[in-house]
Amino acid sequence: MEEMVTTIQDFEDLGEKYFSHWVAKGRDEGRAEGREEGREEGRAEGEINALLTVLESRGLTTSDDARERIRRCTDLQQLKTWLRKAVVVDSADELFTE
Predict the structure, then answer these.
(1) pLDDT digits (tens, 9 = 90+) for 8-30
(2) Separation of alpha carbons 23 and 3, rounded Å
(3) Nearest to residue 73, comparing CAs of 48, 40, 53, 52?
(4) Alpha-carbon distance 44 to 35, whole Å?
């Protein structure tokens, strides 16, 4: 009977060890993903600010709808495309044409 209790205790200790390992691994992966998402959001925010600054610096009026569309965009490639176009367009609305 004593051997059985020891075996059960050993099994519980082993299970706790592996459970703790996987919990820690999941936590670490979650943190890494969170940091990457934060960096992506920061890059998008930087592109948005640059885009709005270029439009403003060029004296182009940006409608509330255009400003909102720009601010809601999270696609870095799209924001970069708009930023390049912002240097040459005659109006902010031209950013959204092909």
Answers:
(1) 666 566 667 666 666 677 777 77
(2) 30
(3) 48
(4) 14
